[in-house]
Amino acid sequence: MLKFRRRRRNEQSFQSDSGTLMNLSLFIMLLAFFIVLNSLSSYEEQLVGDVVQSLDTTFSKDPQKEDIAPSVTPDPVNSVKEGDTFERIDALFQSQIISYKKSISSNRGKMIIKLPLEKFSRAIMAAGQKDLTKMNVQRNPRGNFIIPTLVSILKSDKKNITYRMNILLQVPDNPAHFQNQSPTEMAALMRRGSALTERLEQGGFPQKLLNIGVAKGNPAIVVLVFEPHIPFSPVEEAEQGGRDG
User: 150-159: long-range contacts (C-beta < 8 A, 24 or more apart)?
Assistant: First the structure.
């Protein structure tokens, strides 16, 4: 009787070990299969972005909202090549300067950007600038791109509208009064403005699309105004003057 019980226990132990070994073998086979599958697969960044955006839209609190959900960060480099002129300018400043304030008047076709003068100066004066609209990149590249990219954006509007950029340097008082009270500081500001416009023109910015002035405001902030460029026509001016007379 004792021998029979011992033999039965041995058979149960052998069956248990066999089941464990079979499960372990199956696990190793599945692991090897997924390792091979992963090595043969490829990563499609665009498809991943679409999937993540779809999930965020589905589970966001406001499904009707058209903006991208907070967990999805749009790629400023790719956005430079998409959308209207103002959207592309916005994307460019996101990739190059980051901290700025913007306002857009759709009725007047005008975009205003306010940003620190020092950051704007560094971005303009940076050497080795390239045109992002002519580069085939997937992620934000390192480098300086603001002047040639801005020129391309302003000259390639889908509605065949050419835009100009007005630069407003600011002084703490009325410009005329500031000139009288602080001529040295005004002269230094004018030299800085001349250096900025010269660098822009050297980078390919057409002189007709660039204007610089002085306004009352925070001296640490520069104001950029983008608006449609209307070429001067002496004939039209003469005709308008005749009608007014």
Answer: 150/89, 150/92, 150/205, 151/203, 151/204, 151/205, 151/206, 151/209, 153/80, 153/85, 153/88, 153/89, 153/92, 154/85, 154/209, 154/226, 155/206, 155/209, 157/84, 157/85, 158/84
In what order do the strands lie in the sheet containing 210-216?
101-105, 110-116, 221-228, 163-171, 210-216
Please give the C-alpha separations between residue 152 and each of 3, 74, 209, in angstroms, as whole numbers: 93, 21, 12
Q: If DSSP codes are grouped into helix, strand and coil, which group holds residue 184?
A: helix
Task: Please compute, for residue 148, the number of CA atoms within 13 A of its CA located in the half-sphere on the CB side.
Answer: 14
pTM over 0.70: no
Name the DSSP class of 69: P
d(CA 10, CA 4): 10
- Quickly tell me which residue has 């993540």 as its tokens: 52
Instruction: Determine how β-strand 163-171 pairs with β-strand 210-216.
Output: parallel
DSSP state of 207: G
Residue 26 in 3-state DSSP? Answer: helix
Q: How many CB atoms lie within 10 A of CB 93?
A: 23
Q: State pLDDT tens for residues 219-243.
A: 999 999 999 888 765 544 444 454 5
Which of 17-26, 104-113, 167-176, 234-243 is the least confident region?
Answer: 234-243
The per-residue pLDDT for range 101-160, each reduced to its tens digit, is 999 887 778 999 999 999 999 999 988 888 887 777 555 566 788 899 898 888 765 667
